[in-house]
Amino acid sequence: MSSDRSGTRGAGRRVSSIARSISMSYWLRRLVQWIFFDLLAACIALGLFIHACNQTLPPALMSPGAIFPNCDFGLYGGRAIAAWHYGVHAPDGTVYSFYLLDAARSIWPLPVFVILWELIDLLRIFSETRRVRRKLQPLQDLALTAEAVGQAAAADPMAADPLAADVDKMAMLEQAIARAGVDSPIISTGNQDLRPIEVALNRLLRQMQEAKLQQMRFVNDASHELRTPIAVIQGYVNMLDRWGKTDETVLDESIEALKQESDHMQELVEQLLFLARGDSGRNTLQRTKVNLAAVVHEVWEESCMIDAKHVYRCTVADADTADPRFTVEGDLALIKQSLRIIVQNAEKYSADGSAITLSAAAEGAHAGFSVQDEGIGMSQEDAAHAFERFYRASGARNETNEGSGLGLSIAKWIVDAHGGTIDVVSREGVGTRFTVSLPKTAA
User: Fold this and answer.
1) How many domains does the chain contain in total?
2) Which residues lie below 8 Å from residue 227, measured CB to CB, with a gap of 6+?
3) Is residue 274 domain-resident?
4) In angstroms, rounded to a whole number, what is the distance separating the alpha carbons of residues 95 and 92?
5) What pLDDT, in 10s, does the model give residues 318-355?
6) With contact defined as beta carbons under 8 Å apart, do 76 and 83 qualify?
7) Quick one: pLDDT at residue 70?
């Protein structure tokens, strides 16, 4: 019995070591990618800063032949960050100095967001190691079987042949694993006895490949969404720096635009952090008794007050708001947030004066709500991708530039966290209906 326990612990340590090695190899590559990305972004930002500074110089200094022999990049007055500058010396002795800290104040949300996202991404190494270890469980079972056969062979020399066969199988499997990788998720030995392990390992590699592609898409989409507000902020800052400081009209317009774009960036970062916390399992539900009919009625009243451009209808009767048939166990704030997201989506893609209908339903062990609009609608292909992060239908992009494409992803995460379902039915030019169904008891 003691020998069995010792063998089990030894196999467990080997599997943990393999899982840790696979996970560490993948995340070290991710770290190197982040470092190169940060260095490239810093170089691009520095180049843009120098270019923007040169645009403000007098015309006589605008040619490269006049600027580069007389420019310097260093410190004034010490080694503090505030002293870092880019300077150009004019022939008449005038020095034009531009300080990096002044430019950084206008774009600080971007590097903060990038650093936060990289840290969150790298912290996933701990969960990845556990996931790899679970997927390698069949390999541990095989190792224990091989050890048992070895012990039997030691007791009976005639049993040495099965042990040799298992050793050969392990060697074949190790070679197949060495040939495979995240970018080529195929393990094949041709041995039918190893087929179950091959299936489990191939499934693990496919999941890792999909996670890698999803991470790349997520970073690319997030960068794309942040690029527009940053470009607007930089444009207004440059305009203020050139002539807007003395023009009251330009100053007011710039301040309003900067506030709007800052609010948009803050909303986007908050949505990204919400989804990141959800992916890492750090969003917790505060479950209570929630009457969905009352939630629908409350959101309908709010929508009528804040949006006078649309006609809001509600099929929930006053008696339904106290009807126990509409009661579920869930997080009131998150359920209300999911409904608001769907209503705001309907408002965004519906013409002024059109109707938006909110309703609640209860049947058997489930209760739910739906939102029906008379907006531009979606094609079947767009509807199939409606809940993907950053996805917006082509017609929706043409209608408006507002929104980040994360709202419906958040709504779906909330519904999934409650063990429910969310469905969409849409026809172009007719409208869209979102239907949410939640179990009445905690999933």
Assistant:
1) 3
2) none
3) yes
4) 9
5) 889 999 999 999 999 999 999 999 999 999 999 999 99
6) yes
7) 62
Domain with 259, as residue range(s), is: 226-279
Residue 119 gets which letter from DSSP?
H
Residue 211 domain-assigned (yes or no)? no
Nearest to 218 by CA among 391, 410, 34: 391
10 Å CB burial of residue 9 (0-12, 13-18, 19+) is: exposed
- Taking a C-beta distance cutoff of 8 angstroms, is the pair 118, 110 a contact? no
Q: How far apart are CA 20 and CA 17, in angstroms?
A: 5
pTM of the model: 0.51
For 344-358, the three-class secondary structure string (H helix, E strand, C coil) is: HHHHHCCCCCCEEEE
Q: CATH number of the domain at 320, please.
A: 3.30.565.10
Do the domain assignments include residue 16? no
Helix (H) or strand (E) holding 315, with range, is none
Answer yes or no: are the C-beta atoms of 409 and 388 closer than 8 Å: yes
> Encoding tokens for residue 153?
């062979």
Alpha helices of 160-247 — where are they, by DSSP H? Answer: 160-179, 195-242
Q: 295 and 252 share a domain?
A: no
The residue out of 246, 263, 279 marking a domain boundary is: 279
Query: How many whole angstroms separate alpha carbon 376 and alpha carbon 391?
Result: 16
- Residue the block writes with tokens 């050969």: 168
Concatenated DSSP letters of 17-38: HHHHHHHHHHHHHHHHHHHHHH
Output the pLDDT for position 402.
59
220's tokens: 């690319």
Cα–Cα distance for residue pair 3/6, rounded to 1 Å: 5
Q: Could you tell me which residues are beta bridge partners of residue 314?
A: 358
Residues paired with 368 in a beta bridge = 361, 437
Q: Is residue 13 part of a domain?
A: no
